[in-house]
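Quick question: who can interpret this fold?

. . .
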Amino acid sequence: MSDTGEWYYDVETKQVSQGKTTGYSNRMGPYPDRDSAEHALETAAARNKAADKDDDWN
């Protein structure tokens, strides 16, 4: 494992890893810590919902 301090979420395997251990097409991140990476999908959903309400994005 890489000791970069960056965490990633793999959407295919639904696993969290430290460092770039998977291909970019399945990887979300980087995140500052494991907990943030574990909640990557919830974070993305919340950001999408906020952007949908923002007139600057629509």
